[in-house]
Amino acid sequence: MRVPVPSSPQANPKPTNNLLRTIALPNLNTTSLCYEPTSVLDLCRSPSPGSEKPTDHSVVVTDSQDYLDLDDHALHNLDWDSIMKDLGLHDDSGAPLLKTILHPDNNNNNPCDDFTIAPFDHAIEFSTLSDIYSNQNLTFDFNHLVHDFSNQHHNSGFDFIEELIRAADCFDTKQLHVAQVILERLNQRLRSPVGKPLQRAAFYFKEALQSLLSGSNRTPRISSLVEIVHGIRTFKAFSGISPIPMFSIFTTNQVVLDHAACSFMHVIDFDIGLGIQYASLMKEIAEKATESPLLRITAVVPEEYAVESTLVRENLAQFALELRIRVQVDFVPLRTFETLSFKAVKLVDGESTTVLLSPVIFRHLGNAAAFLADLRMVSPSVVVLVDSEGWADMATAAASSFRRGVVSSLEYYSMMLESLDVSTAGGGGEWVRRIEMMHLRPKILAAVESSWGRMPPWRESFYGAGMRPVQLSQFVDFQAECLLAKSQIRGFHVEKRQNELILFWHDRAMVSSSAWRF
């Protein structure tokens, strides 16, 4: 149900200050290491890692009712001052590292020269949370792939790939007892996630197949504060090592700004994470608005997201005070959304509504057609889809068989690990391991489960629901190109295909961003 537009707000309160200490990540610049091609397809490459500084992004929110049934004991005993100190929040933030909207200079031969983003560097010191918040379809021949594995890698220690694919094939043929035997044998070959990218990816996929057999990856739990803080630090390191996280954030925010009014905006987010992506968006809203702006964020989150939701709310509220804008954040439990759909989301007359999607919500809901039919009733200004999991290729492959979906995902994540290795060829292997364990391993578990569940290709689902792609603006392209120019990691490039902006690692799509309307 839509409710009337709220009355004009009172004067914005004066920002408050919180002085806290810094978090320093270890220097990852050491003696250069020799790079060796290690992808699934064993492509010949000669990338050259860059050494510049990462862009930091952060998040913020204001008071609103929390719909989640939170654990009172857990939340009431949180020492948020200590957490903020661990996150390095204090009030002496400087100018933003990156503005979301950047206008090319027609008189400049290199428009990226004025792109004010801190260079990527593997020696990262995160001084303030406020700084972080302010700155900020290939087909494959499966038989040929197996043939390559069998003949080229059998004598070089890579025959475990054939075993892994055979185990996946057993799921298709319902020979789960045979799959268990193969996986137990692989346990002796792949004891830990070490070695080349393909070996490490194979280890995680072996784990994922074992979890699918036992059902152990379907038991969510509430994260501890220590895990959340480590997750934030790891995400910061990921952003400093690779352009992949920031590509998703910048393109999404620019699409939102291109299609929504800045004075009264509502974002319905189905994959909010820690909310870091709202940093530059909020700053742009504050700078562009001619009157007191209001940003409403409705995040649909799983029930185990209780602690993260409180952290997001506190951070967004603080940053909103500093920017002198109003931000309201509501959390809708996924279980409630599964029952009520968009009736669980408060809609207000006169607001510009944007919906942010990722593969996550489609994995949870299963029925993409019903979800998109309900979404149509919301009449959003724009729907933004970011695929940073290789969903398009995986879903197309998995439509024919589970093993093809596994092979597609294995190819995708081995490429992802390869790009991380190349990006840290001067050192930083420990942070790559942390990124793998905290950010990529859960996605691999989800990818295998999605292949088993035959999650439909998103593009076909969108067209089937009557959605049509929206042309991305030149500023979206401009930001992406400048981000890569500053990262200086050879091997990444950006292409526009069918109104999607795609970040490639060589010939494999890593992230795609697209905008849609009904």
Automatic annotation (TrEMBL):
Its main location: nucleus. It holds the Pfam family GRAS. The keyword Transcription applies. Keywords: Nucleus, Transcription, Transcription regulation. Residues 353-444 are annotated as: PFYRE. Residues 447-517 are annotated as: SAW. Signal peptide: none annotated. GO terms for cellular component: nucleus. The keyword Transcription applies. Residues 311-343 are annotated as: Leucine repeat II (LRII). It is found in: Nucleus. InterPro entries: TF_GRAS. Belongs to the GRAS family. This is Scarecrow-like protein 15. It comes from Vigna radiata var. radiata.
